[in-house]
Every structure is written in structure tokens, then in C-alpha cells.
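Ticket #4471: structure output looks truncated?

Reporter: J.K.
Steps to reproduce: submitted the chain below (140 residues) through the standard prediction queue, then opened the result file.
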Amino acid sequence: MKAVIIYESLTGHTRTAAALIAKELNAAGVDAVACPITQIDYQALSEADLLIVGTWTDGLVFVGQRPGRASRLRNLPVVDGKRTFVFCTYAVNAGKVLDKMTAILAARGADVLGGMAIRRDDIPGGARDFVHRLVDSVEA
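Returned output as attached by the reporter:
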């Protein structure tokens, strides 16, 4: 199985999460590569069985949260039917960022199977939990 992780990062937290997710997937036997949204590996994307998309949480602390640089997500290539998972990093409250990401990716043709918000003060633990959930749901 192959996976590509496309991420948008502002301060490096989401980039770190994407790298750890790729590392955890590789350890689980999934050939995974992470790339920033500005440098997508289109060959890897076309060959991937799974697409994972991550971004940071933008907006006010308790209201108005949205995916960071959502316009870049809206400009992703069409991925008709590709099994997809989403994640976001956040400090205090992720709000409905995952729902908004799911809607954006569904509009690009993705089959979004799930997602997880990863608190930025525990990125290693969050990445590990995300991969375990992802692998369990793909194997089920």
C-alpha cells in the first residue's frame, strides 16, 4: 500500500506532524511520502492508495476556526474516489476544521474516510494515534 501526505504548514507544527505520520506509516508497512502543498509529488499522488491531507487551524480561539490557507486546499488536483484522511494541528480548539477540510476535499472528488485533530503540544502522540486509527480503518 502507498500513501502520500500533503500538508500546509505555517509555523512547522503541521510539517512535523506530516513527517511523523509518514514515519509511522512506513513503520506499519505502508510506503508513505510527505510533501508540502506547494511541492506536491504528482507521481506519488497518482500511485497512492491513500491520500492524507493536513493543515493548521486558523481563526479566533473559540469561534471562526477554519483550515489554514484553505484556498490552497481548494486548488488541489481532482482525486476522484481516492481514499482520503484529513488532519489538522491546533493549539486550543480545532472547532469544525476537520468538517470544513472534508467538504473541500470531497469537492475535489476525495472519498474522505476520517480525520483527527492533533494538539500541537503532543504532535508525536497525535501522529501515532492518527496512524493507528487510519491503519485500523483501512484494514477493517
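Triage note (M.O.): checked the attachment and the full C-alpha cell line is present. The helical segments are 13-27, 42-47, 70-74, 97-107, 123-139.
Status: closed, working as intended.
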